[in-house]
Amino acid sequence: MYPAMKKKNRRHPDPDESQILAGVIVRLIEDEEIPRYNELIETHHYLKSSAVVGRHLRFVAEYQGEWLALATWVAAAKHIKARDITIGWTDEQRRRRLGLVVNNSRLLVLPECHCPNLISRFMKLMVNRLSGDWAKRWGDPLALAETFVDPCLYQGTAYKASAWTKIGKTSGYGRDAGDYYLNHGRPKDLWIRELQPGAMAALRAETLPPAWQPVEDSIAPRCRMRPEEIRDIRELFEEMDDPRRKQSQAYSLPGLLTIVLLATLCGVNRGQRDLAAFAKSMTQGQLRQLGFRRNRRTREVRAPGETTFFRALRIADERQIEEVLLRWQEKILGPVEDQVIAVDGKKLRHSGGVELVSAFGVESGRWMGTECTDSKSNEIPAGRKLVDRIELSGKTLVADALHTQTETASTILFEKGGDYCFTVKGNQKELLHTSESLLTEQAFSPSEC
């Protein structure tokens, strides 16, 4: 212990203390130092616990090798009303962006190491490196910090001096086990500090800054639809043919296709494994609307697994699915009013080379159908099959140069009653030459009258 650091009732540090403040360094605790760190926290911190769960960092402030202060940072609390109201984000934004918030769960100045401005100096040095250290250890940056202060013991002066803001109180509940909470009867003051300028505005914005977007993208989507809405969607698929034996229909095909549709709307697009994870995240109230068999003993509905989705998607009739989805879309959006229809092909990501040709309304962006290309063919025949199913009377179809084919144009013009606007490229030399000659200004040839 340094004699100059005895606790004194004065406002400004003396020269010895100023020298210590100027020379103090902040660093992360090494693995071999954790037992010593935990012992000091359990001995001197009023909570008498050093336990951490999940993501965390431990810091120490030291001068010439002497430990002066300790701090622990952990993942943010899931639900804090005052914090969520202050930020202004939605429940879904909070769920997907909470990884950008960190909680200062322990802050301790060791006995006989108190001196004016030490705690604010410690906090400043930590905050300056906190986001970088967190990203290096856990892969994600940080935007906001929070902490709880027991007003029966402390006034939060150290946080106020370090530019933290008190925004309210907790509800007085603490986690007891899993998601079970008990009322401990001692609400804490809640303090927050932005780690980046404008952090709270960014956290409630429709889209996150690019540097923070991976945090949100890493969170699995979750179904937010009400049970009655899910039931209405399932009923759309009730007319689907299910070739499976009755004994194999514990998971009804309409219910499975409803999950696929819900997952797609929520951004799940990587295959059966993610579909199974999405289904597992659904509540019992949601699962009961899907027509699945219940467990006879527990009366609960078990979410379908990866292989169930694999088998269901193999037997489902794609044309029937398309018809159902188009009817559902029309029910929600009304009749198609687009006068220009675009046809384009894209390779499906994470599918091993599967290519789809789809049609969309140019004005509204509405989907109008999709055709999968044959493994030994290309977009051209798939595009023609798609054109055969689309209502084109009085409309114009636009497509890229690959679809600039006589047969396709004839189908649109003479069979479907529509017009077309195709692209012509340099590799279609004869067609390009003919088009250029037709568009070149020519002399007027008067008729004989």
Q: Quick one: how many beta strands?
A: 14
The number of domains = 3
Which class best fits the helix and strand makeup? alpha+beta
- CATH superfamily caption of the largest domain: Gcn5-related N-acetyltransferase (GNAT)
The strand line-up of the biggest sheet is 1-2-3-4-5-9-6
Termini separation comes to 118 Å
Low-confidence stretches: 1-8
Give the helix tally: 17
How large is the radius of gyration?
32 Å
CATH topology of the largest domain: Aminopeptidase
What percentage of the residues does DSSP assign to strands (E)? Answer: 15-25%
Main features:
449 residues; alpha+beta; Aminopeptidase; Nucleotidyltransferase, domain 5; 3 domains; 7-stranded mixed β-sheet; 5-stranded mixed β-sheet; 14 strands; 19% strand; disordered N terminus
